[in-house]
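Dear H.,

Thanks for agreeing to be a second pair of eyes. The structure we're designing against is below in token form, covering all 406 positions.
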């Protein structure tokens, strides 16, 4: 008998049915653990397939233990990007400093993982696809909790009832909107916008990133490997979120082109490539901060509940840890007690990681000439320092063992 006496004997009791919206990092990790704890899991993903490749993401601290417990560490070590150098340039393109990336990210060389987003979601999906039902190219249309479960209608037309539903549908979560209303209430804009896209690597870059800065503007090229593609990031300070621009891809291109019109270095070529890019992604830099992560039989996980912004580099790690903690909290509890335990045991970890950045103060993107000079002086000092031991926030949670591993 467990603490609450609720551990299900799957030989005699029908498996409880749960639906996860989103097959990203949080959704697939949650599917893995809920399946492990005896739930019958369905995942609905609005995209037609999983995308491979993609921008690089980090797995650090506590999250490394999550992927180790999932048995994914060897596969992810093979996919490790091994970024060797991060070079900072002045407005005229001259070098300010060249540092090992961990000095900036607060990570630990040789221990942390940096992989392409698609390599991580691919590994997570491969670990669950035989045991979990995936519905691609579909999404939740309505949620109704007035009965004994959650009645769901799908965009594709079908209707089903689940014991619980989870929103793992990212920063702009629709599940969150169904439960709690418009995103604006929870979105904490951090004062920057960014555009990211890929372009041909005509720069001779390999396993390295180069960042050009002037006050309030940054342009970075990130070469993940030796292949002929680089990721371009164009980031700029913008005091208020430009809501109209978020909804209009043409306006996004125009805005970025205007902000970087007189920029030096390789920026004119990057802006030209942005106009032709078919994978342009533009957004504001922001966090999601919510007083509660669940309502009734529906709970949120990952960016949907607590996006920390890419400035922290911790979004993926929070998604992995959050999924582990949420599923574990439901291993031997009903939804109300499980959701309460999930929040109680995970919130502090989320908060210390979100608090690593404040509005307009991102180290990589100083907004004034004075702050940029201070940043550059700091980089010069850091370039002579040995590797870091890792930021305490990254490991601020010791994972409980929810059930014996099989
Ligand atoms: C440009 C960029 C750079 C980043 N760099 C880093 C970094 O260096 N380090 C780091 O740790 N993190 C980084 N992040 C953040 C990181 O990608 C996220 O924090 C992390 O992926 C969170 O995972 P998630 O599963 O919660 O959300 P997501 O990865 O956003 O996944 C959400 C999933 O839900 C699906 N979905 C959305 N809406 C619906 C719907 N209505 N119905 C069904 N499915 C839906 C989406 O298609 C997607 O598959 C970066 C993000 C961006 C955009």
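And this is the sequence the design step returned. I haven't edited it by hand at all.
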């Amino acid at each position: 008998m467990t603490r609450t006496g609720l551990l299900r004997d799957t030989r005699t009791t029908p498996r409880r049915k749960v639906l996860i919206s989103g097959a990203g990092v949080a959704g697939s990790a949650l599917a893995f653990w809920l399946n492990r704890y005896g739930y019958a899991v369905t995942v609905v993903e609005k995209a037609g397939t999983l995308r491979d490749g993609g921008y690089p993401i980090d797995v650090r601290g506590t999250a490394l233990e999550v992927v180790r417990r999932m048995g994914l560490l060897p596969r992810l070590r093979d996919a490790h990007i091994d970024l060797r150098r991060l070079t900072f340039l002045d407005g005229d393109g001259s070098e300010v400093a060249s540092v090992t990336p961990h000095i900036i990210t607060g990570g630990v060389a040789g221990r942390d993982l940096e992989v392409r987003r698609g390599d991580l979601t691919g590994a997570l999906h491969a670990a669950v696809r035989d045991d979990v039902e995936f519905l691609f190219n579909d999404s939740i249309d309505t949620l109704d909790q007035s009965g004994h479960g959650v009645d769901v209608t799908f965009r594709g037309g079908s209707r089903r009832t689940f014991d619980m539903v989870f929103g793992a549908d990212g920063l702009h979560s629709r599940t969150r909107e169904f439960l709690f209303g418009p995103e604006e209430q929870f979105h904490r804009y951090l004062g920057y916008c960014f555009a990211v896209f890929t372009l041909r690597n005509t720069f001779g870059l390999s396993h390295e990133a180069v960042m050009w800065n002037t006050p309030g503007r940054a342009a970075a090229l990130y070469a993940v490997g030796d292949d002929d593609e680089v990721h371009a990031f164009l980031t700029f300070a913008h005091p208020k979120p430009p809501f109209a621009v978020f909804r209009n891809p043409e306006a996004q291109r125009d805005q970025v082109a205007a902000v970087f019109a007189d920029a030096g270095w390789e920026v004119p070529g990057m802006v030209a490539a942005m106009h032709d890019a078919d994978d342009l992604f533009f957004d504001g830099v922001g966090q999601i901060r919510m007083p509660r992560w669940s309502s009734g039989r529906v709970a949120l996980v990952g960016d949907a509940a607590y996006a920390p912004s890419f400035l922290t580099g911790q979004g993926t790690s929070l998604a992995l840890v959050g999924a582990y903690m949420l599923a574990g909290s439901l291993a031997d509890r009903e939804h109300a007690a499980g959701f309460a335990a999930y929040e109680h045991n995970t919130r502090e970890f989320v908060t210390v990681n979100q608090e690593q950045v404040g509005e307009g103060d991102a180290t990589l993107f100083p907004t004034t000439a004075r702050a940029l000079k201070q940043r550059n002086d700091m980089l010069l000092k850091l370039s002579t320092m040995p590797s870091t031991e890792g930021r305490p926030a990254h490991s601020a949670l010791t994972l409980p063992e929810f059930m014996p591993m099989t």
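Two observations from my side: The longest strand covers residues 187-200. The chain has 13 helices and 18 strands.

Warmly,
E.
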